[in-house]
């Protein structure tokens, strides 16, 4: 098999044009092209009236060696790399080794468990929240009736934080071993659309994610794994062995103790009680930067026209996304984060008396508004103290402020963009109807974030208009607050064996540990951690 990269065709090309382009590029007759498939498809929309599709094609041809030799100097033609997943070569564990435990069923925990199960290592998976169907009822109940279940919500439950999301499946992580391909392959096996394998910015949307998560659970259990829901890990047991701290088990909320010497902690960025417990048990954690800001809603049509011009609405392109950055004059970086085309803003609280926003969409991305978090980067120097968990204190403080500003009933505080920049409270919506449920309460958002963030955001909204014409829109709606952009701590681990810096057998994993940000990177980290656990378990 050989691969041709950077094969460009016009957006509206007929299907037959692709085969013709491959033949022309390789300089071979039709009879010599045995088979071909699209490995990747992206687009170049820099020239809006002439948007180009860019393909990477895998082709099976007659006399491949000769064809490759003819194109030896062409950097875009070469043998297709082997992107298949290979399990690590780990010996089976010694008899009597307790089974590995995985805490959390977000994308990270699910992939730790799946790989361990595929290797025959029978993981036990512990999840504080409910199975995804019951969790969906609780989450939608919160959005409709303002009744928060602190153990079953957008953050907690089967599938983790990404279940009610846009389901974007791309990431900028370095992935030399093609683990991302393994993740996509497993997702397709679990019901994701085939196209996620080849489109450059795949996404799945919420409803499909729910079904996929159930399928993955079925596969893990069919392979000998066990998953327990509504089972919160409240404590870990650690012993001193020959001067080294070693994990020996977990204690559950009901008091039950389970022994293990291999424990993956994939708890996401919102398990504040578990972070506190790990810190109190002496596990090494440190504060890390994250970002704070608002969700912003514009009409999706505005973004489509700006990005795609006359090709706005083209089915292949779908609803347009954007990525923007502004370096404010006070030294702060302001950037778009987790942009959800044609989606909705969601209430993502997991603690009583606190309001926090996020975004989600369905596969169709057909809702009227585009939403994105617009956030300001902050560092531990901005936190209220130098305590390793001080970032959590700041998040809590801002989420509590948002709750009060919203009316103390889980409505979110909001403001029109023009009013926010001008520094006056909003009193009535304009042409953009906010999608957040239960509701957006119009107010002045200035007291919701520290002054440096407000100043940087005001400057950025005006500056973004140069990047996306029309972005500074008087009646675009800002909804507050966005505080859970990434984990406020890092549970540091060794680079080589993925075990905690000071606690053997503890494998910090995924977003909560500070080693991922997003579904794909969390899932890839899950694969790496599973491999490290399998190697650590191998009998010596
Ligand atoms: P999580 O997914 O947070 O999973 C952690 C799990 O651990 C949870 O299920 C939790 O209940 C469980 N847990 C926590 N503590 C305990 C305990 N003590 N005992 C037992 N179980 C415990 N990313 C994208 O890439 N694309 C998107 O489109 C996208 N949209 C998003 C939309 C929303 C609304 C949200 C909230 C997030 C979105 N994200 C998106 C981010 C993405 O979901 C996260 O980066 C990802 O889920 C992190 O995976 P994780 O497995 O590390 O942690």
TrEMBL record:
Ranges of residues in domain FAD-dependent protein C-terminal: 289-485
Pfam families tied to this protein: FAD-depend_C (PF21688)
Gene3D superfamilies named among the record's database cross-references: 3.30.70.2700, FAD/NAD(P)-binding domain
Domain of life: Bacteria
UniProt xrefs under PANTHER family: FAD/NAD(P)-BINDING OXIDOREDUCTASE, FAD_NAD(P)-BINDING OXIDOREDUCTASE FAMILY PROTEIN
Name assigned to this protein: FAD-dependent protein C-terminal domain-containing protein
């Amino acid at each position: 098999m050989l691969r041709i990269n950077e094969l460009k065709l016009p957006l509206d090309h007929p299907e037959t044009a692709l085969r013709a382009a491959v033949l022309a590029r390789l300089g071979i007759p039709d009879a010599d092209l045995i088979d071909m498939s699209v490995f990747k498809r992206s687009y170049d929309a820099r020239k809006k009236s002439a948007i180009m599709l860019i393909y990477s094609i895998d082709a099976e041809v007659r006399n491949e060696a000769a064809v490759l030799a003819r194109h030896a100097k062409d950097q875009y033609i070469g043998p297709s790399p082997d992107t298949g997943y290979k399990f690590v070569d780990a010996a089976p564990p010694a008899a009597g080794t307790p089974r590995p435990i995985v805490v959390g069923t977000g994308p990270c925990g699910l992939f730790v468990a799946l790989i361990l199960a595929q290797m025959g290592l029978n993981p036990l998976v512990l999840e504080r929240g409910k199975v995804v169907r019951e969790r969906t009822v609780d989450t939608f109940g919160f959005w409709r009736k303002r009744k928060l279940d602190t153990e079953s919500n957008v953050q907690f439950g089967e599938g983790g934080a990404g279940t009610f999301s846009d389901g974007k499946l791309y990431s900028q992580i370095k992935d030399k071993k093609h683990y991302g391909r393994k993740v996509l392959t497993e997702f397709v096996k679990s019901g994701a659309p085939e196209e996620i394998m080849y489109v450059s910015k795949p996404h799945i949307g919420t409803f499909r994610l729910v079904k996929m998560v159930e399928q993955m659970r079925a596969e893990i259990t069919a392979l000998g794994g066990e998953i327990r829901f509504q089972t919160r890990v409240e404590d870990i047991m650690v012993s001193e062995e020959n001067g080294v701290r070693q994990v020996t088990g977990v204690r559950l909320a009901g008091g039950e103790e389970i022994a293990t010497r291999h424990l993956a902690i994939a708890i996401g960025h919102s398990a504040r009680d578990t972070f506190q417990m790990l810190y109190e048990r002496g596990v090494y954690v440190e504060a890390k930067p994250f970002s704070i800001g608002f969700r912003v809603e514009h009409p999706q049509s505005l973004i489509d026209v700006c990005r795609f011009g006359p090709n706005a609405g083209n089915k292949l392109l779908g609803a347009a996304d954007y990525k923007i950055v502004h370096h404010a004059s006070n030294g702060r970086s302001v950037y778009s984060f987790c942009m959800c085309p044609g989606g909705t803003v969601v209430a993502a609280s997991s603690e009583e008396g606190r309001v926090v926003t996020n975004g989600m969409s369905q596969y169709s991305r057909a809702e009227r508004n585009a939403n994105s978090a617009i956030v300001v980067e902050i560092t531990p120097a901005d936190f209220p103290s130098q305590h390793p968990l001080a970032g959590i204190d700041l998040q809590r403080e801002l989420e509590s402020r948002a709750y009060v500003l919203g009316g103390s009933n889980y409505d979110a505080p909001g403001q029109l963009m023009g009013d926010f920049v001008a520094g006056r409270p909003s009193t009535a919506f304009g042409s953009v109807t906010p999608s957040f449920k239960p509701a957006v309460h119009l107010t002045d958002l200035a007291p919701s974030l520290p002054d440096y963030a407000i100043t940087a955001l005001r400057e950025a909204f005006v500056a973004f208009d140069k990047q996306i014409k029309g972005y500074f829109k008087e009646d675009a709606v800002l909804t507050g607050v966005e505080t859970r952009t990434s984990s406020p701590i890092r549970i540091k681990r060794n680079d080589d064996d993925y075990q905690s810096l000071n606690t053997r057998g503890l494998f910090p994993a995924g977003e909560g540990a500070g080693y991922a940000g997003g579904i794909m990177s969390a899932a890839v980290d899950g694969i790496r951690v599973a491999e490290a656990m399998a190697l650590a378990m191998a009998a010596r």
